[in-house]
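DM between two lab members

TW: hey, do you still have the Acetoacetate--CoA ligase entry open?
JB: yeah, one sec
JB: this one, 668 aa:
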Amino acid sequence: MTTDNTAIGPRRTTPPEPELLYAPHPDTVPTTQIGRYLNWLRRTRDLSFDSYPDLHQWSSTDLDAFWASMWDYFSVRAHTPYTSVLGDRGMPGAQWFPGATLNYAEHAVHLSGAGPDDLAVVAYSQTRDKMELTWSDLAAQVARARCGLQRLGVGRGDRVAAYLPNVPEAVVAFLATASLGAVWASCAVEFGARSVIDRLSQIEPTVLLTTAGYQYGAKHIDRRDHIATIRHELPTVRHVVQVPYGPGELADALKWEEIQREPGDTAFTPVPFAHPLCVLFSSGTTGKPKPIVHSHGGILLEHLKNHALSWDLRPGDRMLWYSTTAWMVWNSLVSGLLLDATIILIDGNPLFPDLNWQWRLAEETRTTLMGASPGYLMACRSKNLAPTTSHDLSALRQIAAAGSPLPPEGYRWVRDQFGPDVLLNVGSGGTDVCSGILQGSPLQPVWAGEISGPCLGVAATAFDEQGKKVVGKLGELVITQPMPSMPVGLWGDADGSRYHATYFNTYPGVWRHGDWVRFATTGSCIVTGRSDATLNRGGVRLGTAEFYRVVEELPEVDDSLVIHLEDPSGGPGQLLLFVVMHAAHTLDESLRSRISAQLRNALSPRHVPDRVVAVPIIPRTRTGKKLELPVKRILTDAAPTDIVSSDSLADPDSLEAFLTCATDPRLA
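TW: and the structure you got?
JB:
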């Protein structure tokens, strides 16, 4: 270890040994879903694996055997059988389970481990009273909605769009749409008209389900003017259906009750494995949102695998995870039904009336799997909440976290609050695969600040700029083998050129995800941020998450954003640090010096910021991701309207301070 403060590069030549927070217990693993799967492999396939790395190696190399085992283990109901697991394994364009026909919705409504009178959906809202649907209620409402959509002329391949909160009607309409072989797309009701139009105009829906308004905390939001604009800009929409939700009526709209008026038959149109199930949209923070097409079979198999073997979801479990209908987490939440689990829907302000609201819901519903954003967990830590002291959370077995990196301090807070019997499962994936790429499971250890490793069936690794695998160094997160939930394409991209350019241009035949990651020899890893926002000063590369961990542990700093403006002539450029100060503190030269000293000691002299600037708020997407690249583009003279829609921001005014900074000659 060097002691020279002027040395170039990181102060440590080797990273410290990570702190082990959780180790699989041999007595409890056999009772988990992954333990049962291992036992099933021994009995039916004569396959035994001594460790998770061994199991993962098999699952990500012998793709035919692994994914065939998923099909059989979860008893996938096919209307016609597949002729092979992989007809073509090239990327892009891998052909999964050719010949097979099935339907995602059939698996979500069909019961195997729960009773018809057990709860399927529990919904909490700040707009209306709590709602519950039993499994028989759910099946009946899906059948009615299917019949109602058919009366509106919806059939296979048509698009049904929703501009709805996270309510049971959205789940019912999604499953009814899927049952017909039609294609679903949804936008969060928090989005403004422009964001909705930018997304839905690309897929040309024929039916739009929406509501006149909603409650967000203590504030009522009227959406009728937005809906009028949306209807005007979407000429393909033949029918608007109003879901009853809060006050207000929509002119010339059918009522949800009309869609639900006739019982209908419980039926599911068989479609090929690759038939479009839904279109998910990228955040739209660096251009027009990408319409990512996911398939019936891909989402079905991937979510069965993920929810059971990573999240240990079992029949009768309760799954709670705050999400809007625009986030891939909503699709993952709905897929809890595939495992006969009860899904808990939360609609409204997730922090209203206070941080404890979600913990109170977890107590009331006896939640077994709770999803939480790293930002939420860190806020609970910051406010010194003690959830297990104030609430009975004894049913909880796992806390899943995703959306942004979780600092080691967040890991320790969860361990200290919940003890060794609750698994903290931090994952990283995305809308692009609608699942996790890197994640934990009951079979994997957890180290503070690190994701446990690649998910089963996912050949994830890190590449350097030459396309060579790197371990112990930062590299591009890539996937070297196909997985079923990779998109079947981007909507409207007839020749596949946009899809290819998005994921396969950098490394031919290899999926480049766009994250910057470092794998350890143990297989665990750290995602340090988007690769296009990586800090590269004098050849020393650093992920932004590592930067934030140092800065945001200072008691004076509530939030931060770091941007590197490169020098076109090859110089070091400018490293700019923006900080949101704690209410009791101001940014002065003394604090600037202390921030610089902390970064020099913890990271490298190369990463001492050239300027530290106080701003009132850090811009984030509605899912909590910091907008590093859009801010960088604003500081290099791009207009905000060209790169990001204000509706995609958690706070529409959060870019104002950076527009002012862009005119500061000291930052030129």
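TW: got it. Residues 1-14 have pLDDT under 50 and may be disordered. The first helix runs from residue 33 to 45.
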